[in-house]
Amino acid sequence: MKLKEIAHSRTGDKGDIINISVIAFDEKNYPILQEQVTVTKVKKFLGETVQGEIRRYEVPTLGAMNFVMQKALRGGVTRSLRLDRHGKTLSSILLEMPIGDTNN
Description:
Radius of gyration: 13 Å
Strand content: 25-35%
Strand order of the largest sheet: 1-2-4-3
Number of strands: 4
Structural class: alpha+beta
Number of helices: 3
Distance between the termini: 6 Å
């Protein structure tokens, strides 16, 4: 299954840093997010898009996690030559990440 089947996301940016929140549609799925959406897996899935450190902050009362990613916007909004200078599409990309049984 893909992450988008059990969660939605929001994105924000500041300079060359982007944060992506991953929020469970149903709080019963939050433990799946905690287990499956790790920094290591996110870093591997996003590949060269994020060149710096990624930190995960958990917000269990909201059934959410916030990933703060350094060096993810190629210099930030005023300097980047990327089409998506704010990184808004990265949340949609992350929601395509396979979780659970990777055979599906």
